[in-house]
TrEMBL record:
One of its GO terms (cellular component) is endosome. Its main location: other. One of its GO terms (biological process) is endocytic recycling. It comes from Salarias fasciatus. The keyword Ribonucleoprotein does not apply. This is VPS35 endosomal protein-sorting factor-like. Residues 53-72, 84-100 have a biased composition (Low complexity).
Length: 412
């Protein structure tokens, strides 16, 4: 069988294009326009009243005639339909604005579908235990500024005492308790919590601040590293108590002569309350050590609402950046978890800060294989897998905060 040899057929593309082109019909200018409405010619015959009169026909051009003569009298509009449409659009706009406001309000508050920190507290305390002996530094108070110096006025003595109190925030006589069991440690922390409340109720605000500072310093101690997650839970209970006391005090100062609404603005806050709030932030800013300054300011983060509208939004990134100065990756991880917890309580809609904390946390994991962490684990006879489990409560909490009401597709 002979092989078939294919050859291409020659084509004249111009001739083919002419044959396939549609025939053009001449159209006068102004006769046709694509946006011009379709016109229908309706020819009506009018009959004369007299017999034998000639009939005349008239042509009128109009749009598609309405089928209902009553509708034609109303020019195609029904007043009831117009009223219903207007009220419907108004109700739709009202419902849209109300739903938008409701949605915005829901975004500013954590709902019951968010698992609170209190539900995780007991699990952490029961899981991260130790048989090692613990130690704690108890604040005993300072004797500075008790009696005025001879020859000084009351005003100058008050100023001097205030300056000494600010300089002495992190000092004072202390007593270190050694060889404490885990239960003894928890009891001592609870005693400090009660001492904080008693100092506050007796108007010893500086002493209350000193107790919080001393407790915050304990979170830098990782000498018994297996117990650190439980220590974090116990210490942050004191921080939460302090944050509530400060906020409630300033709130009470704003309730005179009328109660302050829950959705108050900066304009509703009087000058005395603002000055008191600023005084607390100035005292905290005078704390020299990074970790207690970070924790105590985070504890009263909600008080920024009394000062500026965007105070919380501006403070969260700054506190997040401060955590980068913490050298121990485990201590830094739980500091981020605490900041995310406070952030979810006061401004859960600010997701960017949560994402930033998470990425900073990921960046610190390269420190785990560093020499400092390895020497610490060898000294405490802790294996790396056991050490990594200590991060799980902090990581789980941060991820829960990020995932709450997050869209299905989001860039973390």
């Amino acid at each position: 069988m002979a092989a078939v040899q294919w050859r291409s057929r020659g084509r004249n593309y111009e001739a083919e294009q002419q044959r396939c082109r549609c025939e053009a019909s001449p159209v006068e200018f102004g006769e046709y326009h694509p946006l011009k409405p379709i016109m229908v010619t309706d020819t009506k015959t009018r009959r004369g009243a007299r017999k034998g009169s000639t009939s005349s026909s008239s042509s009128s051009s109009s749009s598609v005639p309405p089928s209902d003569p009553l509708s034609s009298m109303l020019d195609g509009t029904d007043p009831l339909s117009m009223f219903a449409a207007a009220s419907g659009s108004e109700s739709h706009a009202t419902s849209h604005s109300s739903s938008a406001g409701k949605r915005e309000k829901e975004e500013e508050a954590v709902g019951p579908d968010f698992e609170p920190w209190s539900s995780k507290r007991g699990e952490i305390l029961s899981r991260f235990t130790t048989t090692e002996k613990l130690s704690i530094n108890l604040f005993m108070g300072s004797e500075k500024g008790k009696a005025p110096s001879p020859g000084t006025s009351a005003v100058s003595e008050k100023v001097r005492t205030r300056l000494e109190e600010l300089d002495d925030l992190e000092e004072g006589s202390q007593r270190e308790l050694l060889n404490l069991s885990q239960q003894d440690y928890a009891n001592r922390i609870e005693e400090l919590n009660q001492s904080l409340k008693e100092a506050w109720s007796s108007d010893q605000k500086v002493k209350a601040l000193k107790i919080v500072i001393q407790c915050s310093k304990l979170l830098s101690d990782t000498s018994v590293i297996q117990f650190y997650p439980s220590k974090f839970v116990l210490i942050t209970d004191i921080l939460d108590t302090f944050g509530r006391l400060v906020f409630d005090r300033i709130w009470t100062m704003c309730s005179d002569p009328r109660p302050l609404p829950d959705n108050f603005t900066v304009e509703d806050v009087n000058d005395t309350a603002k000055e008191t709030c600023l005084n607390w932030f100035f005292k905290i800013a005078s704390i020299r050590e990074l970790l207690p300054r970070l924790y105590v300011e985070a504890a009263i983060l909600k008080c920024n609402r009394f000062l500026t509208k965007s105070g919380i939004q501006e403070t969260l990134p700054r506190l997040t950046a401060m955590i980068r100065g913490i050298g121990d990756p485990l201590v830094a991880a739980y500091a981020r978890a605490y900041l995310c917890r406070i952030g979810m309580e006061v401004a859960p809609q600010l997701k960017d800060n949560l994402n930033r904390n998470f990425f900073d946390l990921l960046g610190t994991f390269r420190q785990i294989s560093g020499e400092t962490v390895r020497n610490q684990l060898v000294l405490q006879r802790v294996e790396p897998p056991e050490y990594l489990t200590l991060y799980s409560p902090a990581i789980n909490w941060i991820l829960q905060c990020i995932a709450y009401r997050a869209p299905e597709h989001s860039e973390v």
